[in-house]
């Protein structure tokens, strides 16, 4: 056992309790008072609705629980981005559920709410998963309308996606369980089936005040756009529900009747637990991100029966590649090795750094997985590509480009776990968010940034010093220290996994022990969508 095992374990468990504390806080949404207000109106909260809808005792994962965290404090905050998203099972069918949180500014859409809704639709589209919207929203968050209204990835894209998803044959069901105002009114009606809850649900393009102001008509909101109006007069909605539970039961009944479609056909056998104890991950993962460790010890605690068939074990060793099963699903694992390795040519290579040989190996392995229809799992703990003349002259750029090419053009589903560092172009080559992982999630130990705080501060200081020198000035040691500390502090704050999760660069921060569950749920979702195009790498950078 590593002499630092206990120290590491204490540290990682502290990070875990911080995660649990933060999660408990965001789960309160707009707070106890607003929750009590909803209950007084006879409504359930967004989380209560989802819990009631999902099959009892079934597995689920929450997407982007930390969306918006710390981003809108001057507006009173936007916990979970004002919308709760979960992948789970409804009447035995895997679905994605999107529920507006009316305790957060009446469910109005902040910019991050738009990004999160689009991510939910993207997950439904990529995996051909049925999507269920539980609508309770005041529409656009008006003080920030310029950041959520008109652009390609703003509110309007949701309805465009509703239409596109419908033509793709993806089931969409919406229940209006509170307000559904203005442009937002299109979402339920562009779904296949729309339910509305009597007395609490309402849909209109303009509420009674605006109607009075615009055309002088006197009308109350219920007559204008309540459940009876839309189920019996306008024909806008398809089912009238007595209350929230009735609406959710009706959705369960509708989902229950959905037939089975063609599957992708990823290999699955009976799941087996890892033979080595996954709890030991806490003690293996070092406290400091700069410390070395053997990633193989992590892999063995994540895969079924701890069995891993390593591909090219002796070559390009700063990346580990190989086949395994996770919860029965066959996977190809691409992981950054974090210990110093010695190549067969006698060269010492730093852990967590991608060299030409490791990039080449990963490229070929990724191609193999595509050839064999095996989902890919990336375990990131990467500081970037090797720098310096030896590496540059050896063509690291073209070797890295090949790896980026293979990751980008993969047709099998990809899943990314940010275990530790996720820096620079290493983030890209190891399937960061820009490379379409079906799910990307981080452990509490993760750090994501273009480079570390110390490195960034040193680079920027050199730039500053040389620009001053060009003007005939010199940077004083005091000024240098001040500048260094300022830059480092800013970067250090931004490398936090919470900073990344709040911006949905990842789908969440999870307990390492939940990794197998996330990957298994992710592959099961991906299995709904047959692969539609051949694997084609295009021009290879030889
Ligand atoms: C998509 C397109 C093309 C267009 C649009 O969406 S335009 C937006 C149009 N929306 C509206 O006009 C709705 C305005 N809001 C309401 O009418 C009501 O808030 C309600 C009927 C939706 C809900 O009423 P409720 O009594 O349950 O809640 P409130 O106390 O009124 O609101 C709670 C809280 O949220 C703030 N709020 C509500 N709506 C918005 C909004 N659209 N933008 C910004 N802020 C909104 C409201 O001020 C209050 O804030 P405080 O808690 O800070 O007082």
Q: How would you describe this structure to a colleague?
A:
Residues 270-533 form the CoA carboxyltransferase C-terminal domain. One of its GO terms (biological process) is L-leucine catabolic process. GO terms for molecular function: methylcrotonoyl-CoA carboxylase activity. InterPro entries: AcCoA_carboxyl_beta, ClpP/crotonase-like_dom_sf, COA_CT_C, COA_CT_N, MCCB/AccD1-like. Helices cover 39% and strands 18% of the residues. The strands form four sheets. Strands 1, 2, 3, 4, 5, 6, 7 and 8 form an eight-stranded mixed β-sheet that branches. Strands 9, 10, 11, 15, 17, 18 and 19 form a seven-stranded mixed β-sheet that branches. The protein is globular. With 542 residues, the protein is α/β, with parallel strands linked by helices. The longest helix has 22 residues, at 5-26. The two termini are 43 Å apart. It has three domains: 1-28 and 264-446 and 506-541, 2-enoyl-CoA Hydratase, Chain A, domain 1 (Alpha-Beta Complex), CATH 3.90.226.10; 31-256, Alpha-Beta Complex (2-enoyl-CoA Hydratase, Chain A, domain 1), CATH 3.90.226; 453-496. Helix 6 links the parallel strand 5 and strand 6. The protein has helices at residues 5-26, 32-40, 46-53, 111-127, 156-168, 186-189, 208-215, 221-225, 227-233, 244-256, 281-284, 295-300, 356-372, 389-393, 396-409, 424-429, 453-470, 477-494, 497-502, 515-526; strands at residues 61-63, 83-90, 93-100, 131-137, 172-181, 193-197, 202-204, 239-241, 309-311, 319-326, 329-336, 341-342, 348-349, 353-354, 376-382, 384-385, 414-423, 439-442, 447-449. Bound molecules: ligand LDTOBESC. Ligand LDTOBESC binds next to strand 5.
């Amino acid at each position: 056992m590593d002499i630092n095992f206990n120290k590491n374990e204490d540290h990682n468990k502290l990070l875990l309790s911080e995660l649990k504390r933060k999660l408990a806080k965001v789960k309160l949404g707009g707070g106890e008072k607003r929750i009590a207000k909803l209950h007084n109106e006879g409504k359930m909260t967004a989380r209560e609705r989802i819990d009631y809808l999902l099959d009892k005792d079934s597995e689920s994962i929450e997407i982007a629980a930390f969306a918006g965290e710390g981003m809108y404090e001057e507006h009173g905050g936007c916990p979970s981005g004002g919308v709760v998203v979960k992948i789970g099972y409804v009447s035995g069918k895997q679905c994605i559920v999107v529920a507006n949180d009316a305790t957060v500014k009446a469910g109005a859409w902040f910019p991050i709410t738009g990004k999160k809704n689009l991510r939910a639709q993207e997950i439904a589209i990529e995996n051909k998963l049925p999507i269920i919207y539980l609508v309770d929203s005041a529409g656009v968050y008006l003080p920030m309308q310029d950041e959520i209204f008109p652009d390609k990835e703003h509110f309007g894209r949701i309805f465009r996606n509703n239409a596109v998803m419908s033509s793709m044959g993806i089931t969409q069901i919406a229940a209006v369980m509170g307000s559904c105002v203005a442009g937002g009114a299109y979402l339920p009606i562009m779904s296949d089936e729309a339910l509305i809850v009597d007395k609490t649900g309402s849909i209109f393009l303009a509420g009674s005040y605006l109607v009075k102001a615009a055309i002088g008509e006197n009308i109350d909101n219920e007559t204008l756009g309540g459940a009876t109006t839309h189920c019996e007069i306008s024909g806008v909605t398809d089912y009238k529900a007595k209350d929230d539970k009735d609406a959710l039961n009706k959705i369960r009944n509708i989902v229950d009747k959905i037939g089975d479609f063609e599957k992708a056909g990823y290999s699955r056998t009976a799941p087996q637990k890892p033979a080595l104890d996954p709890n030991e991950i806490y003690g293996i993962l070092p406290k400091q991100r700069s410390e070395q460790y053997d990633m193989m010890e992590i892999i063995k605690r994540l895969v079924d029966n701890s069995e891993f068939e390593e591909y090219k074990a002796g070559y390009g060793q700063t990346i580990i590649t190989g086949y395994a099963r996770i919860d029965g699903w066959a996977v190809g694992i691409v992981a950054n090795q974090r210990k110093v390795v010695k190549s067969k040519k006698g060269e010492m290579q730093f852990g967590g750094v991608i060299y030409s040989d490791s990039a080449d190996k990963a490229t070929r392995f990724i191609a193999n997985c595509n050839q064999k229809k095996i989902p890919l799992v990336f375990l990131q703990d990467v500081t970037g590509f090797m720098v310096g003349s030896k590496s540059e002259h050896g063509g690291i750029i073209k070797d890295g480009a090949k790896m980026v090419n293979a990751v980008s053009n993969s047709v099998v589903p990809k899943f990314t776990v940010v275990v530790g560092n996720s820096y620079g172009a290493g983030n890209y080559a190891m399937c960061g968010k820009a490379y379409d992982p079906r799910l990307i999630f981080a452990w509490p130990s993760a750090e994501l940034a273009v480079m570390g705080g110390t490195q960034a501060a040193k680079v920027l200081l050199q730039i500053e010093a040389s620009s001053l020198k060009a003007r005939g000035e010199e940077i004083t040691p005091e000024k240098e220290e001040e500048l260094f500390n300022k830059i480092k502090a800013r970067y250090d704050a931004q490398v936090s996994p919470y900073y990344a999760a709040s911006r949905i660069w990842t789908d969440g921060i999870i307990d390492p022990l939940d990794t197998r569950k996330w990957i298994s749920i992710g592959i099961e979702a991906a299995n709904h969508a047959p692969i539609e195009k051949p694997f084609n790498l295009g021009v290879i950078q030889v």
